[in-house]
């Protein structure tokens, strides 16, 4: 999982509230104002969730969320997705989630409710409860599983960048040319991260990407440090503006933590490339 990075999330959260508040004529009396509920950051979302679990007086928020996703509203899920610019699913870092809107062919990320809307209807439209994600993670893997800030990592709070790592385990000398010669694993010491890994099936899904790992093993042999230096000396300022540009070409992934969200599999590529001393 990769942290959702956007330079001004509080501003987007406030706009989200301002554009939707007119749709809610009578917000039931509760401990929190509509604005607080709609713009609550993850920690506060958790506080609200604990107090208003299964409160059916907020069921109308689920219906309003349905309207928000049906493209008939002035401000809808497409507009929010466009503003967030989350182009790769933060939960899995495997699938692109571009937003494209045209007359006959539109697509956008689905919005997962971190606190599911059936159990917590009060949070059905809350900005930080809406996680742009791919259909596999939202509909197939997560479904109605219960998530909370205590049991899982919330992508608006943190990602796996520093708290989980892919590793390579060589089994025999065929690993240079055969996927059967090695295994990969996704490891963490954090129980919440482990729960994310299990609930999204990330350990099993990433076993399907061994072809990428095999290529990295082969590239690490070809692109040794002196060859990388030679290429950089030859093309600096013409093909590559810096060494990171060259490493991206070699690995086919972004190699700094702040860029991992830009391309699928970047976290896998970065961790394995580091282990192989490719970067
Ligand atoms: Zn996903």
Word description of this protein:
- This protein has twelve helices and four strands, in the order αααααββαββαααααα.
- It has 279 residues and is mainly alpha-helical.
- The protein folds into two domains: 9-142, no CATH class; 166-275, no CATH class.
- It starts with 8 loop residues before the first helix and ends with a helix.
- The mean pLDDT is 95.
- It binds zinc ion.
- Zinc ion binds at residues 89, 91-92, 94-95, 133-134, 136-137.
Layout of SSEs?
Elements: H1 9-20, H2 34-39, H3 42-51, H4 60-69, H5 77-84, E1 110-113, E2 130-133, H6 135-142, E3 165-170, E4 182-187, H7 191-199, H8 202-207, H9 210-222, H10 225-235, H11 243-251, H12 266-275
Antiparallel strand pairs: 1-2, 3-4
Helix pairs in contact: 9-12
Bound molecules: zinc ion (ZN).
Q: Keywords for this structure?
A:
279 residues, mainly alpha, 2 domains, two-stranded antiparallel sheet, two-stranded antiparallel ribbon, 12 helices, 4 strands, 40% helix, binds zinc ion
